[in-house]
Amino acid sequence: MFGLTEEEYRKRFDGYIVTDCAVLKRGHYYFVSRNLAESERAGPTAEATVTKRVTWCLADTTQDSRIQDIEFEGYREIAP
Predict the structure, then answer these.
(1) How much is the pLDDT for 1?
(2) The organism sits in which domain of life (predicted)?
């Protein structure tokens, strides 16, 4: 069984809202999230200013490296 500790959850998801998720194979979970505060300030026409993040959780790896995340780079340049 895979579960996040409260500390792991806070480190990766505090201040973000999950907008999408995927399970690509057993034990590999991927989440797309966006910064909630930036989202509320930006409004619907300024989506490119909101920070997006991809977080992945790999249940079959060690406790220290099983959760990682990156921010979408370059999104502001490709958004209209």
Answers:
(1) 47
(2) Bacteria
Query: End-to-end distance of the chain based on CA atoms, in angstroms?
Result: 42
- How far apart (Å, rounded) are the C-alpha atoms in residues 61 and 78? 34
- pLDDT tens string 52-80: 999 999 888 776 778 899 887 665 555 55
Residue 14: which residues within 8 A CB-CB, separation 6 or more? none
- Confidence at residue 32, expressed as pLDDT on a 0 to 100 scale: 93
Q: Output the CA–CA distances (angstroms, integers) from residue 13 to 45, 47, 78, 80, in the order listed.
A: 24, 19, 25, 27
| Domain locations in the chain as residue ranges | 6-78
User: Residue 58 in contact with residue 42, Cβ under 8 Å?
Assistant: no
> Which DSSP category does 48 fall into?
G
